[in-house]
Design brief:
The structure is a homodimer.
Chain A (H helix, E strand, L loop, with lengths): L3 H4 L11 H14 L12 H8 L3 H13 L3 E4 L3 E4 L6 E3 L6 H5 L4 H9 L3 E12 L2 H7 L5 E11 L2 E11 H4 L13 H8 L4 E11 L3 H6 L8 E10 L4 E10 L3 E8 L2
Helix pairs in contact in A: 2-4, 3-4
Chain A binds a DNA duplex through helix 4.
Amino acid sequence: MTSLPSILGGLDPTSDRAVFRQIADQLREAIDRGRFKEGDKLPSEAELVEHYGVSRMTVRNSFSILQGEGLVHAEHGKGVFVRPRPPVRRLASDRFARRHREQGKSAFIVEADAASSQPKVDSLEVKEEKASQDISNRLGDSVRRVLARRRRYLLDGRPVEFATSYLPLDIARGTQIAEPNPGPGGIYARLEELGHQLDHFEEEIRARMPSPSEVKTLQLAAGVPVIHLIRTAFDTAGRAVEVCDTVMAADAYVLSYQLPAT
Amino acid sequence: MTSLPSILGGLDPTSDRAVFRQIADQLREAIDRGRFKEGDKLPSEAELVEHYGVSRMTVRNSFSILQGEGLVHAEHGKGVFVRPRPPVRRLASDRFARRHREQGKSAFIVEADAASSQPKVDSLEVKEEKASQDISNRLGDSVRRVLARRRRYLLDGRPVEFATSYLPLDIARGTQIAEPNPGPGGIYARLEELGHQLDHFEEEIRARMPSPSEVKTLQLAAGVPVIHLIRTAFDTAGRAVEVCDTVMAADAYVLSYQLPAT
DNA sequence: CAGTGGTCTAGACCACCGG
DNA sequence: CGGTGGTCTAGACCACTGA
């Protein structure tokens, strides 16, 4: 163990920068420089209080900055640790290609296979409900009620994504799409069997901080944003046949797309 | 002005939930219900101290939660306000279509026009430099040095995006691409004139909390993540001719993509 | 048990804003 | 100037962890 003074400098009393920011800066720099590596424990609050000669709240303020940046996380009774970067799932632009469906794989499984992690789905709920204004706009204004399929995806035991699919009742009611298990290839395979040959998808992407309920559902650490993705599936007749609203833990994903140059 | 007790409830001393979380919950709910609207001033710390009968630090802790969620922002000497949602730029999947280039418009201008806001570019820097390992990987391992074009984009005076384009020297050196102003249609138009007919782009998207320097450059409020986008442009020969590394204020953007179903 | 972080208090002084 | 948020102190008690 290297001594603290050799890793962290002193404070600059002449600086305009608040003391707790200076402390946060020094800790951040130490992390960036690799003096503290992923998973390492930072000095305890008491140690920093002594090293810098400040009060405990000042040290805690510093930690709170780093937590907000997603750099560290605190574990009650143990310490404050450099947050390890979790393995990310790369979503490729061909993830909805028909050849995958024809192999009986859903998009999530295809990706999980590629990342060779253990995929799981839970908290499945399938019910009919009233369409929100936004969903109605996307599925066509005549669509008032929809079939909603909610599920949460886990990778290696960690929840990474919460998604709800909305389908018009005239398409989905009474079909296997309305069953908890939609069968091989997922609901997209069923839609095609029902005569809705898929033509393309549109995806809208936003990023923002999670709501408290999203923090809970995805067990998000402090300083982890979510990616909010809204996908609409269109059949060859030009009809929107499904809208999928997905909230993903941003630290678990890299999305990838191809754009035409023409 | 409605009185505080009619908007905010009391505390539940029997609850396990920390007092400052309960206060944050009540404020959040009041905002969600529309009791406080965008731009509205929340009760001052002193008012909440009195209303709840807690110490000031407890109230400030509540505010700090809401700030972390991006719901409110504090203005020194004025108060704490519900953060207004800024206008967003929608990036369409056809934003690099050749027809736009042929009209002499760069992608940013095309989008800004659509949003009818005042676009601006500043802090332009064009220089040759050593390619980072990642850039080198993307442009082809033989590419060691690159032309880097850095610029910041503003919309209605607000910085929303900071981007760096990297191009292999054998393509860009001595051309108009190496000039501060690359001419009508931007560097993609120049690349095509130089014989690199563009075929497609690949975009990689991540979301995360900003670094301190990104906070500064983009003047980000607390609780605003960034979207990190890395785009690679390929010519019809299959060569990567440009990599563009972009960091965007997440609250200013909605990205939109089309995916094939085949 | 000792060490850790989590919560909370009751003050203090400061910097900024608007009238 | 009074009111606002920004910073900081010096304590207190609690809950959780691991030996």
